[in-house]
Amino acid sequence: MPTISIIIAAYNVEPFIGDCLASVCAQTYQDFEAIVVNDGSTDGTAGIIAEAAQHDPRIIPITQDNRGRHLARKTGVAQATGTYTFFLDGDDDLAPQMCEELIHEMESHPVDILHYGITVIPENGILPAECEAFASFNNTPIPPLKNSDIIRKIALESQGYQVDWRVTQRMYRTSLLQQAFDDMSTAALDRTEDGYECFVISALASSYRSCKELRGYRYHYGRGITGTSTISAETYIQFCRQFKECYEATEEFSASHPELHLHQCVEGFEHKATELLANDWKTRVAAQDQPHAATQMSAILGPTITAQELWRHIRDAAWDYLVSDLKDDEALDHIASWQAIAKTIIPSEETPRFRSVEYRALELIREIERAQERLSYADQPIRIFVTTHKNADKPKSRILQPVQVGLKPGSYRFPWALHDDEGENISAKNPMYCELTTQYWAWKNIDAECYGFCHYRRYFDFSDTEHKENPYGEIMDDYIDEEAIRRYGLDDETIAQAVRGYDVITTRYGNLTKIIDGRGTPKKVWEAAPKLIDDDLHRMYDILCRMHPDYKQDAIAFLNGNRSCFCNMFIMRKPIFQEYCAWLFPLLEEFERCTDMSRYSKEALRTPGHLAERLLNIYLMHHKRIGTNWRTKELQCVHFTNPEPQETLQPLPYDKVQLPVVPVVFAADDNYVPQLGTTIYSAMANASKDRHYDVVVLQRNIAWDKQERLRAFFQQFDNMTLRFINVDRLISGVNLTTNNAHISVETYYRFLIQQVLPFYDKVLYLDSDIIINGDIAELYDTELGENLLAAVHDIDFLGNLNVKHGERMDYAKQVLRMHDPYDYFQAGVLVLNTKAMREHYTLKQWLTYASNPEYIYNDQDVLNAHCEGKVTFLDWSWNVMHDCAGRVSDVFSLAPNDAYDAYMESRSHPKIIHYAGFIKPWTDLDCDFASIYWRYARETPFYERLLKKVVQATAPKAQYSRAHKTHERAMGEENALRKVIDPIMPIGSKRRETAKAIGRLIRGRR
C-alpha cells in the first residue's frame, strides 16, 4: 500500500487537469497513489485523465455522474489506501518536492492533521495585492492544537476564527479522514462544502500541527468562477439553498455527536459562512436584483439572519464613508438603498447579534447625518470655530463650526468636524499652542467676513439676558442641550444678530481685584499660577518690546492694571483678524526660539497658549489707545461642565459573547458600592455557566477607582460583563424626591432602563440590598406575554391593607386607584418587559408620575398604579423580605392567609433575600438572614468597608477619654457583634486586626 493518497476531484477542468496530473507524477517522493474522481465532466477532462493513467499506474481514475465536489471527495476517500491523504483540486498543481516535504514532517511529528501553506498564483485579472492578502491569512502559523481546541479555533467567533477551513491545505491521517467522511452527509453539497468537511474532520481529530513554511501546493487564485463576477438573483438564491444544506448537514452531525459539545461551533461556522454568502449579495448581485435576492434569502435562511447581514453591510459602508477622505456620493446611495431593503426584512427574533449590528449601523448613519452639516460651512460669512479634541455636543449651527485638533497619525478624524492639520498648519504644535492651532489654520486657509473662536466647553452667551457668573467670571451650566441653546442664543439667527455691526467681540473684561482670587493684576495672576514660569512672562515682554516697541506702554498698562478678558475667545472682522494673526504668531515663534521647553511639565508646555491670552489683551489695548475706533462688544462666557454627548450603552459585541444573554440592571451610588458588590457576587456565585450576564449599573457618582476594583474582581467570571452608565444627564431637570427617608433617589433609575438599554426587550432589575441564592437566568426566563413586568406580591403592603381602620386600603384605592389592592407587588425584584413599557410610556411620563407628592413609596407606588392588570406574579421565593423590626409577626401575619403561608414557606428556600427596610446586615448583625449576607460579603473586595459600616452603626456614641485607664475587651463574651464577627474574623487574623483598627478610628483612638 502507498504511504500517501492524493484525491483529486475533477469537473470540467480540461485546460488545467493535464498540468495538475503532470505535477503529481513529477513528485520527488514516489510512494503515492492519485485517485482522480471525474465528476461527470462534459468537456475533455475524462480523456486527459485516462491518458495520464495509461502512462502512470499510480493514477487511479474513477468516473461517476455529476454529484458535486463533496461526493466526489467522498468517493475518493473511500478508495484511499495510503497511510496519509490530502486533497488536490483539478485546477491547481504541486511543486516537485511537495510530497517529500509533507511525509518528512508527518514522520518527524505525527499528527492527525498537518496544516501546510500555499503558494498563491493570480489568474484572470486577480490583483497581486489581493493574492498577497489571501496568502498572508492562509500562511499564518498556528500553534499545535489538541482535541476540541482544533474545531474551536476554526469555528468559534470568540477564538477569532484563527484557523482557515480549506480542506485542500491539509494532510490527514487516512483513518481519521475515512471515519469523518463515513459520518458525513450523502447529499450533493455545493458552496461552502469545504467548511462543512473541515468542520467534521476537525471535530473528530485529536492532534493538529501547522507547518506553513511548506508551500508546495500551488493555488491558482481566480480560475473557474471568480468571487467578483456578477451573478443573477436566481443564482444567488441557489447559493442560499446550498449554504442552507451545508448548515443542516453540520447541525445533523453535531446532534449525532452530543459528546463533542459542538453547538457553539456550529453557530460560529454558520455565522462565518453566512457573512461570506452575504458578501456575494453585496458585491455580485446587481443593485436592481438585490431586493428580490434579499427577500428570498430571508425565506431560506430566515429574516433575522438576513436582516443582520444587511445591517452589517450598512454598518461597514457607513464606517468606510466616515473614515474616507473622499466622500463618495455613490457610497451614500448604497447605504440608503440597503437601508431601505433592510427595513423590509423584519427579524423574527431580535438576537443580540442582530441588535449589535443594527445599533452600530444606525449610530454611524446618525454620524453621517451630523457630518452633512459640514457641507454648508464654507458658505457662511460669519465663521466661529469651536476647537475640540474630543467628541462633544455642539449646537446645530452653520456658524459654529467644530475644528478637531491634536490629531496624530491613525487618529479617528471626526467626520462632522474640520481639521487643523489640513492645508497650511501648525497642528503638531497643539500641545504648546492649544486652541491657537485652530486660529493659525483659519488664518492660513479660510476666507470669511468674520472669524470667531471658542472651545468645546466654552461659548459666548449671545443672548440679551444677564446670567449669574462664578468668581472666575464664567456662567456655569451642565449640558449643551436644546434648553441651553435657547438660553444662551446659540442658534444662527441670534448669533448673526449679535455679531452684526461689530468689529471686535470678546469675553467680558473682569476686574482682577474681585475675580481670580482677587490677585489684582494679570502679572500677579501669572505669578500665582503654580505650573507657569515667571521668566516666561518676562521673556515675552522683552520680545514684544523688541519686535514692537510701540506696544511697550500697552504691555505695562495691561500687566500692572486690573482688567482682562479671558479664554482666547474673540470674533473679528477679516482685516483685523488678518492683522492680529500676522502680529501674534511671529511673537510666539520668537518665544519658542528663545526658550528651552524640553523639560517643561505638560501644563508649562502650554505656555504659548497662556501667553496668547495676555497678548490679545495688549493688542486690543494698543488699538484702543491709538484711536482705531473699532466698534467693540463684550459678551458673557458660558462654561459647560459636561459637553460630551450623553453616555450610551451599546449591545454586547456578538463576536465575544457566545452564550444567551441575561441583562441585569442595578442602581447604586458611591456610598453603596460595598453592598452592590456583595449583591452582584451572590448572583454570579449561583449563576448558570450556560448564560452570559450583562450586568449594568446605573449611577451618577461612583468613583472611577471603585468601578475599576469591581471590574477587576468580577473578571473571575468569564460569563459576565460589568458596565457602568452615568445617568445624571437623563434625570437632569427632573425633581426626584421621595417621601420615605429610607428610599434613595437611585430607586428611580429603574424607570430609565427602557431608554438606557434600547436594544433589550426584556431586562431584570434588582435592588442592591439583596442576596441571590438562585440562578437569575431562571427568573429572567419568566414568560411575560403582553404583561409589562413580573414581580412578587408585597407581603408588607398586603399586611397593611388588613390593618384596622383601612388607611392603607383607602390609600391604595383613592391615591393609587387600584382596582384590587391585593395585587400590589414589591418592586425590588422585577422582570421588565421593556419593549412593552416603551410602547406604553415614555421616560418623561414615568418620572412625572413618580414625582407625585401623595405617594408613600414613589418608585414602587407608581409602578403599581400604572401596571395593574399587566403583571405576571412570581413565586414568593424570588423576593423574600426579611423580618425587619418584627414585621413578620406584627404586619406580615395580617396579610391574607394564603399569601402569608406562601411567604412563610418561601423563607425555607429563598432564591432572593431582600433586606428591605431600615435594618440591614451592615447595621444590625443580628438581623434576619444576616449570616447568609456575610457569607457572600466576606468574599468581596469591599468587605472591610462593610465592617466599617457595622462598627459605625454599633459603636457607642460616647466619646472616649485618652485618660481612660481601663482596657476592656472591645467586645464582651456575650456581645451580639461577637457572635457574627468571631466566625468570619478569628482572633489573631489579618481581618480581625483590620476591623479593630477601623473601630479605633471610628471611636477617635490612635
How would you describe the overall organization of this protein?
The chain has 1006 residues and is of the alpha/beta class. The protein folds into four domains: 4-221, Spore Coat Polysaccharide Biosynthesis Protein SpsA, Chain A (Alpha-Beta Complex); 302-370; 380-640, no CATH class; 661-914, Spore Coat Polysaccharide Biosynthesis Protein SpsA, Chain A. 42% of the residues lie in helices and 15% in strands. The chain contains 38 helices and 32 strands. The strands form six sheets. Strands 12, 13, 14, 15, 16, 17, 18, 21 and 22 form a nine-stranded mixed β-sheet that branches. Helix 6 packs antiparallel against helix 8 (193-204), helix 12 (303-323) runs antiparallel to helix 13 (329-342) and helix 20 (534-547) crosses helix 22 (574-594). The longest helix has 24 residues, at 233-256. The chain is globular.
Coarse shape = globular
Task: Report the sheet-strand fraction.
Answer: 15-25%
Helix content: 40-55%
Q: What gyration radius follows from the Cα positions, in whole Å?
A: 37 Å
Low-confidence runs of at least 5 consecutive residues: 958-984, 1000-1006
For the sheet with most strands, the description reads:
9 strands, mixed
Number of helices: 38
Averaged pLDDT, please? 90
Total count of domains: 4
Structural class: alpha/beta
The total strand number stands at 32
C-alpha termini separation: 88 Å
Task: Give a topology summary.
Layout: E1 4-10, H1 14-25, E2 32-39, H2 45-55, E3 59-64, H3 69-79, E4 84-89, E5 93-94, H4 98-108, E6 113-116, E7 118-122, H5 128-138, E8 145-146, H6 148-155, E9 170-173, H7 174-182, H8 193-204, E10 207-211, E11 217-221, H9 233-256, H10 263-284, H11 290-301, H12 303-323, H13 329-342, H14 352-371, E12 382-388, E13 400-404, E14 418-419, H15 430-433, H16 436-445, E15 450-455, E16 458-461, E17 475-477, H17 482-488, H18 492-499, E18 504-507, E19 510-511, H19 522-528, H20 534-547, H21 552-560, E20 563-564, E21 570-573, H22 574-594, H23 607-625, E22 632-640, E23 661-667, H24 673-685, E24 692-699, H25 704-714, E25 720-726, H26 753-756, E26 763-766, E27 770-772, H27 776-780, E28 789-793, H28 795-801, H29 807-814, E29 825-832, H30 834-840, H31 843-850, H32 858-867, E30 871-873, E31 880-881, H33 887-890, H34 897-906, E32 912-914, H35 930-937, H36 943-954, H37 976-984, H38 990-1002
Parallel strand pairs: 1-2, 1-4, 2-3, 6-10, 7-11, 12-13, 12-15, 13-14, 17-22, 18-22, 23-24, 23-26, 24-25, 28-30, 31-32
Antiparallel strand pairs: 4-9, 5-11, 6-9, 8-10, 15-21, 16-22, 18-21, 19-20, 26-29, 27-32, 28-29
Helix pairs in contact: 1-2, 6-8, 6-10, 7-8, 8-9, 9-10, 9-11, 10-12, 11-12, 12-13, 12-14, 20-22, 21-23, 22-23, 36-38
